[in-house]
User: What shape does this take?
Amino acid sequence: MAHRWTNDLTRADVTPKAAYLNRRQILAGTIGLGAIGLAGAARADTLEPNTLEEITSYNNYYEFGTGKTDPATNAHKLVTSPWSIKVDGMVDNPGDYALGDLLDGLTEEERIYRFRCVEAWSMVIPWNGIELADILNKVGVQSGAKYVAFETVVQPENMIGVQRRVLDFPYVEGLRLDEAMHPLTIMATGIYGEPIANQNGAPIRLVVPWKYGFKSIKSIVRITLTDEEPPISWNVANAREYGFYSNVNPTVDHPRWSQATERKIGGGLFASRQDTLMFNGYPEVASLYEGMDLTVNF
Ligand code: MTE
Assistant: This one.
């Protein structure tokens, strides 16, 4: 498969796992070569590997509590089967799709992406997923649609954070249509070649690698095409601190902390912080924001 994006992270940048290595052989002909061919431009200090253990034990998933280990402790209660996704709004084929039907016939790929949380920590994660554009093309986006809105499942009896109302649930997010259609934007269903863990947003979550992690909404049950900018949870909670775009930008600080550097999870207590890269190191998305003042549209 031809690569339509640049990617400077390779499999050498994540911790090899036995199961993952098996997977690697299956995928080697399709994914690995392109990624390896583009290696070399990476920021040297970002490339410490993240283990599956790190990726699944240090999380943000407020429906399961606000502590970093709360999701790993509580998310086993999430019921992920059966799972359906409502697709509505400005689409040719709206409906309630069983997850398998929605993804049927679409190509799953592996994408090794940097992941940068707005709280200034980061990881490198090997996702398995489908380009969101493929899903949107399947349901048929109508002309006039300008945004895509997403909604997370609410299972109050299973979600302690929902019971405690730590945010206004359901968690909602949104992208401009051109951001949603960008080939870097994926819907992830796996990590390290295994089904995505509940605490990481099973059975399907968004991943937008050039934006702060909170844009990557978990456990999605609704996708809506609309011509109006949709509300997003963190902006509703605190508009001064969290904007709609939330592109990773080391020159625009959070009101309460600098975004110039980040702490790589797994680096150890005494590891030095690393520089945060514009668009999290994905400069190919810059053209989406040409002419926009990114200090205003933060
Ligand atoms: N999605 C939902 N539904 N609820 C959340 O609390 N947290 C966001 C994002 N998606 C969140 C969510 C934030 S702040 C981050 S940094 C990432 O999920 C964390 O993803 P991870 O736990 O897989 O690393």
In short: The CA atoms of residues 121 and 246 lie 15 Å apart.
